[in-house]
Amino acid sequence: MIYFKTSNPHKFDEAKEIFKRYGIELGQIPETYREIQADSLEEVVKDALKTIENIGRGVFIEDAGLFIKALNGFPGVYSSYIENTIGNDGILKLMEDVDDRSAVFMSVVGFKGFKGFRDFDAMIFKGEVKGEIAFESRGTEGFGYDPIFIPEGYKKTFAEDFELKTRISHRRRAIEKLARFINPFINPR
Ligand code: IMP
User: Does ligand 1 come within 6 angstroms of the Cβ of 142?
Assistant: First the structure.
């Protein structure tokens, strides 16, 4: 069993589903972590890992963000603040007359392994999914920017197709790398 320190139930559900496929049970530590203001998700995660105490198990945190090309990567590391202030309607407004709708969702996972993991100090795993910003908000599943994000090669937003999201999302890609890494420690042959 390893632990995901997150106060976001959506993130936890997504992660639980992924670990299940590897036969790894996932526990939740429903708390936030220290988030410094920095230029990249990786810096935020690396700093926060310093505050994760040794609980004798593997623990990970995850920081994610939406980077919109036409807005020079905004909201990026400010994704949470922007979601809670101007929200999806605000983003759609900023994108009103913008033709290039390319965007990328990024996820950075930081893992600290203790007992049984040879004291891995701070492992970083990244995932991303390219896509486009929709012209209007669509769908009711997921959270955050899901209703305005259409992954490359598809027509539906993440909020319209949760199954698709859990299959190809940025979080899926980062967490899968972590799951593959720790699998031999949890399920030795
Ligand atoms: P956090 O700091 O990793 O919790 O994420 C920052 C913000 O990015 C969240 O408040 C959401 O608005 C947004 N976000 C992160 N991951 C996702 C996702 O998978 N779908 C939609 N929005 C997301």
Answer: yes
Whole-number Å distance between alpha carbons of 178 and 125: 6
Cα(125)–Cα(26) distance, integer angstroms: 17
Q: Which of 8, 36, 37, 79 to mutate to test the pocket of ligand 1 (most atoms within 8 A of CB)?
A: 79
The per-residue pLDDT for range 62-85, each reduced to its tens digit, is 999 999 999 999 999 999 999 999
Q: pTM for this structure?
A: 0.95
Query: Tokens 């999201």, residue?
Result: 165
What are the boundaries of each domain within the chain?
Answer: 2-186
Sequence-distant (≥ 6) Cβ neighbours of residue 152 within 8 angstroms: 129, 130, 131, 132
* CATH class of the structural domain 2-186: alpha beta
For the record, the structure tokens of 33 come out as 């972590």
What tokens appear for 109 in the block? 């996972």
